[in-house]
Description:
Oligomer: single chain
Distance between the termini: 77 Å
Shape: globular
Number of helices: 4
Radius of gyration: 21 Å
CATH superfamily: Lipid/polyisoprenoid-binding, YceI-like
Amino acid sequence: MRERHWLKPALLAVLLFQSSCALLPQPDVLPPAEPLHCPPPSDQARIGGREYQIERAVLVIHTYRAGWLSSLAHNHVIETDVLQGGIRIGDPVDTSTARLCFRPWDLELDNAESRAAAGAGFESERDAADIAATRTRMLGPAGFHSNRYPVVRADVRWRDSRSAVVTIRFRDASIPIEVPLVWQRSHDGIQLTADFELSHRSLAIRPYSAFAGAIAVADPIRVQLRLSARAASSL
Length: 235
């Protein structure tokens, strides 16, 4: 039987038309009523150790497209440099802790330079309207739900010099995950990086999907963190 070359383009046209009807209006996403505040752990003073305050930090999140029509979708770069928190290095090192906080509202989506730096898979260009619509869905009830949960917090407890257990306080859940750490300490500061993977499933949220998964967001999420902190006594 001769292949019907018109079939796939026709199917794509139908799906694209339906997708324009399927995107229901999203609730308004409101800026936080209060500035970001990241209180230290309540047991920090009791445990002791040397305190460091975060000076600079960058959080970068990558999400990925999926589905047999994934060529019509986009991978995403989500980032912020608006983070607060502190680190306490104890002796022995497995008594060390940290806390970091950020507001979903401060996340920037698909900055053109960041997409270019992300490399293969991020080449597609996005217009401002598409970015704004995607960001609204990301911050809405199916994602961060930032109107109700304006801050995401991560509590860190070192396991040893190379890894830590990070408990992510996301919405109304606490999600522990083991994370590799690369860090070094000088006489008055710390440089730390972490590069790890978590998933939408672990966060108890369903990634976006349409048309029985033909267009979808893949479950894995890549998270990268770079920060520098200075000893509290030298600030």
